[in-house]
Design a protein that fits this description.
CATH superfamily of one domain: P-loop containing nucleotide triphosphate hydrolases
CATH class of one domain: Alpha Beta
Shape: elongated
Distance between the termini: 27 Å
Order of helices and strands: EEEEHEEHEHEHEH
CATH architecture of one domain: 3-Layer(aba) Sandwich
Mean pLDDT: 86
Number of helices: 5
Strand content: 15-25%
CATH topology of one domain: Rossmann fold
Helix content: 25-40%
Length: 254
C-alpha cells in the first residue's frame, strides 16, 4: 500500500524521527509485509495433479508511527492575530486564505507562490497568528511554531496602527527564540502593515528608530508599496540560494 503525504511530513517512532520527507517524490517504507506462503501449485506433481496443500504466509511487520507536518516554504509570514498576514498573502500570490476581522481566522498554514518574470518561484507560508506564551503552547502555540522551523527566512508582519508596534516585533522574536534557539536570527525583514491608516504614518518613523532590521511599510489592503516587498523578497531568496550552493546543497525549488 502507498500513502501520499504532504511535503514536510515527519515520521516518528517512540518520539524519534525516522524519516523527514522534505522533497517531492521521497518515499519511506513504513512496514514490510510478511513472506508469502506456498500455494497449492507448489505441490503440483505428476502423482498429484490437483493438490490441496499449502503453507501459510508469515505475518507482516507491525509498527506504530506518528506523522507530523511541518510546512515547507522559503518565507514565513510571522505575526500576531489580525496583523494582516492572510491579506498580504492574498495580495502577493494566488493563495486565498480566509480573511475576517476577528482573531485566529487562520488555523492552518497556507502556502502561496510568488512568481517572477524569470520564472523563479518563491513560496510564502502564512503561519497562524501567535500570542504571548506561544512557546508554552498557549493558543496552540507549538502547533503553529513548528511550521516556522522549515522557513528559510522570515517576514515579520506588524500592525503599524497599534501603539508601540516595535513591541510586537520584540515579543515575536522572544517567542521564536524560546521555542528554538537561533530561530529568531534567521534572515528577515519587518513588514509594517496598514500604512493606509493615519496612525500608521505617525508610528512608522518611531518603529524605524526602535529596531535595526529593515522595515517595509505597505498596505496589504490597498496594495501600496508591494513592489518594494517583491524586490526584497527576491533578494532574500537569492541570498538563500547562493548560501545553499556554496555549501554543496540543492536549494529548495517549487
Amino acid at each position: 500500500l502507498h500513502f501520499k503525504v504532504p511535503v514536510g511530513t515527519l515520521v516518528k517512532e517512540d518520539g524519534e524521527v525516522v524519516a523527514d520527507l522534505t522533497q517531492h517524490g521521497e518515499e519511506y517504507v513504513a512496514a514490510y509485509g510478511g513472506a508469502g506462503g506456498k500455494g497449492n501449485r507448489f505441490f503440483l506433481s505428476n502423482e498429484n495433479r490437483a493438490p490441496t496443500l499449502f503453507t501459510p504466509g508469515e505475518p507482516g511487520q507491525e509498527r506504530v508511527l506518528h506523522l507530523e507536518l511541518k510546512t515547507t516554504a522559503h518565507a514565513g509570514l510571522v505575526g500576531f492575530p489580525n496583523a494582516g498576514k492572510s491579506s498580504l498573502l492574498r495580495a502577493v500570490s494566488r493563495a486565498r486564505p480566509a480573511v475576517a476581522p476577528y482573531p485566529f481566522t487562520t488555523l492552518n498554514p497556507h502556502v502561496g507562490i510568488v512568481h517572477y518574470q524569470d520564472f523563479e518561484q518563491i513560496s510564502v507560508a502564512d503561519i497562524p497568528g501567535l500570542i504571548k506564551g506561544a512557546h508554552q503552547n498557549r493558543g496552540l502555540g507549538m502547533a503553529f511554531l513548528r511550521h516556522i522551523e522549515r522557513c528559510r527566512f522570515l517576514l515579520y508582519v506588524v500592525d503599524l496602527s497599534v501603539s508601540q508596534p516595535w513591541i510586537q516585533l520584540q515579543d515575536l522574536k522572544y517567542e521564536l527564540e524560546q521555542y528554538k534557539k537561533g530561530l529568531s536570527e534567521r534572515p528577515c525583514v519587518v513588514i509594517g502593515n496598514k500604512i493606509d491608516l493615519a496612525q500608521s504614518k505617525i508610528n512608522l518613523p518611531l518603529l524605524k528608530e526602535h529596531i535595526d532590521d529593515r522595515v517595509i511599510a505597505l498596505s496589504a489592503l490597498t496594495g501600496d508599496n508591494l513592489e518594494e516587498l517583491f524586490v526584497h523578497l527576491r533578494e532574500l531568496y537569492d541570498a538563500y540560494v547562493k548560501t545553499e550552493q556554496s555549501q554543496g546543497q540543492s536549494p529548495m525549488k517549487w
